[in-house]
Specification:
The structure is a single chain. This protein is elongated. It is built from 18 helices and no strands. It is an all-alpha fold and 308 residues long.
Length: 308
């Protein structure tokens, strides 16, 4: 904040050249003032060719402000003018991965960025995430660990580590990694969900409930959260509460994994094996998780750790 105050004095005095505006934008970005960062950078955009660090930062500002399409469009325009900009390629790779709109471009930019900058953090996170999609957990883990070994506060990288351990069915290691992830990005609901499942699958019902509650505190309109809490209630024997939570989950997210899993538990407890098999065949196969891995597979693996 002290840096922002000094830089704004310089800008107010009419001496805000491109480097000053970049530093002012970067300072705002670091503390989460993304709109102010964008405003600080915009007058310097014509100088992006002379000061290449402007374009990646401006792209990230747009993305943080929810303008992902505009961020991609701007980054692509800049890359046409500077096709070897590895920093911008790495940023764009992650934007394409998050949008899931052009995975071919995502892979192309990931490879290009890492060829020039082998430790580009966003390109490495993207490469790790792509490896998870390709069901290559060992490769994903190695890529993510390259990041956390240099920057132990990279939450997305820790999340990739956690998911890789999920694939390897090392739930304890997955939980440890996901706990690191939520420490550095406590506002990411999906990571709280992953942590809750890691805890739940190790029979840590209290821990899982606490994690689902954290997710609920962030946004009460996520069906997966209510479905997870319904599973918790059911396992505690509170079937009325489970029913109420499951109904809310159904309204918010009809295909949520946790709601499907609750139905599976209920069918198991009914002792109707034929109904369980039919449910798995009719419902869970329609909802894929990672590539080549359906909820049928995932649910079958989940049953053993909880239902003893």
């Amino acid at each position: 904040k002290a840096a922002i105050a000094e830089l704004e004095k310089i800008a107010a005095a009419g001496k805000a050249d491109a480097p000053v505006r970049y530093n002012l934008g970067y300072a705002h970005y670091l503390i989460g003032n993304y709109a102010d960062a964008r405003a600080a950078l915009e007058p310097a955009l014509p100088e992006a060719g002379k000061l290449p660090v402007i374009a990646p930062l401006y792209t990230l500002c747009l993305q943080q402000l929810g303008e992902s399409d505009a961020a991609i469009t701007y980054a692509e325009e800049r890359l046409r003018a500077a096709p070897d900009d590895a920093e911008l390629q790495g940023v764009l790779a992650l934007l394409y991965f998050d949008s899931q709109k052009n995975m071919e471009a995502c892979r192309r930019y990931t490879t290009a960025a890492l060829q020039k900058q082998p430790y580009h953090p966003m390109a490495l996170v993207t490469a790790s995430s792509l490896a998870l999609m390709d069901e290559k957990p060992d490769e994903a883990l190695a890529l993510a660990e390259r990041i956390v070994n240099r920057n132990p506060n990279d939450g997305r990288a820790w999340s990739c580590v956690g998911i890789a351990y999920f694939f390897r069915r090392d739930l304890k290691a997955a939980q440890q990694a996901l706990e690191r992830a939520v420490q550095t990005m406590p506002g990411h609901i999906g990571t709280w969900h992953l942590l809750a499942w890691a805890q739940l699958l190790q029979n840590d019902i209290d821990g899982a409930e606490a994690s689902f509650n954290k997710a609920r505190d962030l946004d009460r309109n996520f069906g997966e959260t209510h479905g997870g809490l319904a599973v918790i209630a059911y396992l505690r024997g509170d079937k009325e509460r489970a029913k109420s939570l499951a109904e809310r989950a159904r309204r918010l997210a009809p295909n949520s994994m946790s709601r499907h899993y609750l139905t599976l538990l209920q069918l198991q407890d009914s002792g109707n094996d034929a109904a369980v098999r039919q449910f798995l065949a009719d419902n869970l196969k329609r909802k894929p998780s990672f590539k080549g891995d359906t909820l049928l597979d995932l649910a079958q693996r989940m049953m053993a750790p909880i239902r003893k």
